[in-house]
Amino acid sequence: MRTLLFLLVAALAGAATLFAFAPYRLFWLMPLALAALAELAQRQPQRAFWLGYSWGVAAYTANFHWIYYSLHDIAGMPFWLAAPMTALLPAYLALYPGLALWLACRIDRRPAMRWLVLFPALWTLAEWQRGWMLTGFPWGTAGYSQITESPLAGYAAVSGVYGVTLLVAFSAGTLIVLPRLANRWRLALLLTVAAFWAGGQQLKAIEWTRPVGKPLRVALAQGNIPQSLKWDPAIYEYTLTSYYRQVANTRADLMILPETALPVFLDELPPGFLGLLAATAERNQMALAFGVPRRTDDGRGYLNAVIAPTTPGLPYYAKNHLVPFGEFIPLPGITSWIYRFMNMPLSGFSRGGADQPPIAMASQQVAFNVCYEDSFGEELIGPAAKATLLANVSNLAWFGQSDAASQHLQLSQTRALETGRPMLRATNTGMTAIIHADGEIGAIAAPFTRQVLSGMVQGRTGLTPYMQYGNRPVLLLAALLLTLAILIGRRQRRQQA
Question: Which UniProt keywords apply (predicted)?
């Protein structure tokens, strides 16, 4: 009975993390939720894996429940298949906190070593690993909960989101260790944690990059085309006309339309439409980019692309980090049968290639990324280093009026902080936004409205510490802490033997 109660409390603590992320942004909840998990594991270390697993299942189900909406309501998958498919991702992701907690309890029994050294190191390594394993899914990483309200957000430009995660886990471990420390050590630990949090607040005030060029007016289109109608031939003409009118009625230096704004292959657009769109933008003295599917140069595949029709040579960016099951079929011999139950157009995209160059637009260098590509901070470092602006085009109509769009916005804010560059977000239904280099939102469009968001933005150049070194320093630190804990534990056991 006690074990069941502990598992239930762990699940409740995990579910509470929903409110630590956007749109709720109660950043202080994350260290408390992790501390609750750690306290349970300290009392029942023999159940550490299952406590961590219960925490993870509840946390990831609460945060990613919107997957069911996309599978069932939009893609048309029947309930009996959509429900277990939705549960599959949290069931897999929960393995990482389960293993991290199990190892922390297995390696060392001493509370200080377990929760101040092992737990932060293992939790950070586990979060990083799930961010790349099987193409990766880093949403829900603890560090994201601190962007941008928490003082710890200041570390994003220095160590990236995983450095923030390490400090969140260390703060949680402090809450567990403090009551168990002798009085002479409590003040030292409190001062250490306070120094980390105060230091983060000071780091937030540093400008790691410098302005380049003149400020420019940008315009971000939000078409608000329902996903259920987006690929319907009956409204194809309406979609093209709607976006054309938005371009024709906009005055800006740079205008960006969302992911697959034009729901047809580039070479299948009505004759003359691409030229008309470009000429209209040029008449308004405006650089233009929009999302559209594009065939590969050899004609054997197709790309989720962003085209710049007002730039000579018709340059484009093509999405490289594709969504499993959404944009490509993993292990088609095993999983292709699932698509018989789904209305999933264009589910076989090709990769665009890593480290694509930015596109010169409006006297700036714009590095594009598509949809959830801005979830992967280290992958954006190369393009961002050559760019002065970042731009994300997305279509989150797949997830309805859920928290998915707000969570995605928080990821974009993190990338702006890490790179010291503004992030422009043009989305179909929300959250269309202008994010400044400090991660703060300069302007945002009301979700589920058809409008063009306008505002001023300043391009920036230079490298943040994170851009220079990536995740390596944090991963090395975590690995070093883990190694030291193992070596010290072995030495102590030999002395006691």
Answer: Acyltransferase, Cell membrane, Lipoprotein, Membrane, Transferase, Transmembrane, Transmembrane helix
